[in-house]
Amino acid sequence: MIGPSDQAESLDALIDGVSRPLQSLRPSQALGWIDHWAQACRDAPSFVPVAVGLDHLGTLLRADRLDGAALSEALRDLAAATRTAAASAPEIQPHLARLSDLLDRGAGAVGG
Question: For the packed helices 5-18 and 27-42, what is the interaxial angle rounded to 10 degrees?
């Protein structure tokens, strides 16, 4: 479940990872983060849309062929869902705002 202290540390680690160029991320690492956060988000009602977005992103990344436009759209949708959900978690809102910005930046990098 999304909670204040333990989740803030975990979010910081995630933010550090996604702050790097996308090409440096290992697919298995990215999918591990996606699966971990999707499960955590399913436990908090206001974060269910984030979990849905993460599940969709994971499906796209597991495809035989990557679709840059679809990945870009999924990242933008996930950024928006994260921003909306952040309103229900003020104690970690700054972390979620940073993550949303990074997701938007990643969307621009993969699909324009």
Answer: 150
Measured in degrees and rounded to the nearest 5, phi and psi for residue 104 equal -60, -40
Q: Residue 59, Cα to own-chain centre: how many angstroms? A: 13
Indicate if the alpha-carbon torsion angle 74, 79, 84, 90 is positive or negative: positive
Rounded to whole angstroms, the Cα distance separating 108 from 87 reads 24
Q: How many CB atoms lie within 10 A of CB 28?
A: 8
CA dihedral 18, 22, 25, 30 (to 10 degrees): 60
| Residue 66: partners with Cβ closer than 8 Å, 6 or more residues away | 60
> What is the pLDDT tens value at each position of the chain, 112 positions in all?
445 456 677 777 778 877 777 667 777 888 988 998 899 899 889 999 999 999 999 999 999 998 999 999 999 999 999 999 999 999 889 999 999 999 999 899 887 5
Token pair, residue 95, equals 């972390």
Neighbours of 32 (CB within 10 A): 11
